């Protein structure tokens, strides 16, 4: 059984990643920390609690993390593109039924610190900017040599970015944080656009989820349809955040190369993920993916409902 903590900026593809983590029989979801990005941190907490309730996983605890990039003096407010892709509140054109659960009192960075200090038997999967994890390392530098694994949907290595020619959205939103994390000694795998743009979720997945007749299938179907219409259009879309959870579970579907990674923090390439110089780095980057296997996995989501 794979033990996971998710760190999310819960918009639509984060919600699909959350569904896999909350419902797959091979995953034990220990907790979710929230950050800003696709939405504000308040919306990320709300969407995470509501999705977990839809998925009948009210038992999973949700923690509020940082609300802004390390270098920012004010809380992050999503740009127009984020609002368009994920909808006005991060849940497409629907309003999720409200969960009665509340976020935990403990702060998200504190929770990650406490968990990393006390155990290393879980994988931390991040699907938003890396501010929470960088904050952990700034406060407790010795956690740089944490023995657990980190898997992050972030960056673009041999591929152009999706915010501009150079940068992917999660690294663009907090390049300083991403740099701290990648230049640490963490065992981290970068699941970037090099692989997430090579696989697809389809309208037919959304149709199958709706046909399950369950409330959660109907809600996820609406979310995916909205996301398809506002990203690639037509019948399909990229598989960003779910790819990180799938990698954590089935790393053999991906080809990775061990390489030091760093992040450009100045000039027009700000947010670009590039090869670093660090010796003995424990980081890897995914460069290829077995598309059929990932899409077959995604097709199985219908069996969760
Ligand atoms: C990443 O940016 C966000 O919009 C998605 O949720 C994903 O984490 C893709 O670049
Ligand atoms: Ca995300």
Itemize the secondary structure elements and their pairings.
Blueprint: E1 2-8, H1 12-23, E2 27-34, H2 41-54, E3 62-64, H3 80-86, H4 108-118, E4 123-126, H5 131-139, E5 149-153, H6 169-173, H7 175-182, E6 187-191, H8 193-196, E7 200-202, H9 203-211, H10 215-230, E8 236-238, H11 241-249, E9 254-258, E10 261-263, E11 273-275, E12 284-289, H12 291-299
Parallel strand pairs: 1-2, 1-4, 2-3, 4-5, 5-6, 6-12
Antiparallel strand pairs: 7-8, 9-12, 10-11
Helix pairs in contact: 1-2, 1-10, 1-11, 4-5, 5-7, 9-10
The protein binds beta-D-ribofuranose and calcium ion.
The site of calcium ion (CA) has 9 residues, from helix 1.
Word description of this protein:
The structure is a single chain. The protein has 305 residues and is α/β, with parallel strands linked by helices. It is 37% helix and 18% strand. The chain has twelve helices and twelve strands. An eight-stranded mixed sheet has the order 3-2-1-4-5-6-12-9, sandwiched between helices. Strands 7-8 form a two-stranded antiparallel ribbon. Strands 10-11 form a two-stranded antiparallel ribbon. Helix 1 (12-23) packs across helix 2 and helix 5 crosses helix 7 (175-182). It is globular. The two termini are 20 Å apart. The site of calcium ion has 9 residues, from helix 1.
């Amino acid at each position: 059984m794979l033990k996971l903590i998710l760190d999310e900026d819960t918009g639509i593809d984060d919600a699909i990643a959350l569904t896999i983590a909350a419902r797959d029989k091979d995953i034990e979801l220990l907790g979710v920390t929230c950050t800003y990005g696709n939405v504000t941190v308040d919306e990320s907490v709300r969407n995470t609690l509501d999705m977990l309730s839809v998925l009948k996983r009210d038992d999973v605890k949700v923690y509020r993390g940082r609300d802004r990039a390390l270098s920012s003096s004010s809380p992050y407010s999503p740009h127009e593109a984020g609002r368009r892709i994920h909808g006005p509140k991060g849940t497409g054109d629907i309003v999720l039924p409200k969960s009665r659960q509340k976020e935990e009192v403990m702060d998200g960075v504190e929770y990650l610190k406490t968990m990393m200090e006390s155990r290393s038997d879980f994988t931390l999967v991040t699907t938003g900017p890396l501010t929470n994890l960088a904050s952990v390392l700034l406060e407790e530098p010795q956690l740089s040599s944490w023995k657990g694994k980190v898997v992050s949907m972030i960056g673009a290595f041999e591929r152009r970015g999706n915010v501009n020619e150079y940068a992917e959205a999660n690294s663009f939103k907090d390049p300083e944080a991403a740099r701290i994390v990648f230049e640490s000694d963490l065992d981290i795998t970068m699941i970037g656009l090099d692989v997430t743009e090579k696989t697809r979720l389809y309208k037919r997945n959304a149709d199958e989820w709706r046909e399950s007749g369950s409330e959660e299938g109907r809600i996820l179907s609406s979310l995916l349809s909205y996301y398809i219409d506002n990203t690639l259009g037509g019948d399909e879309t990229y598989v960003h955040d779910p790819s990180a959870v799938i990698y954590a579970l089935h790393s053999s579907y991906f080809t990775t190369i061990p390489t030091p990674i760093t992040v450009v923090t100045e000039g027009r390439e700000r947010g670009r993920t590039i090869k670093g110089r660090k010796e003995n780095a424990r980081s890897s980057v995914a460069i290829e993916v077995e598309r059929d296997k990932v899409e077959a996995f995604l097709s199985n989501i219908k069996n969760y409902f």
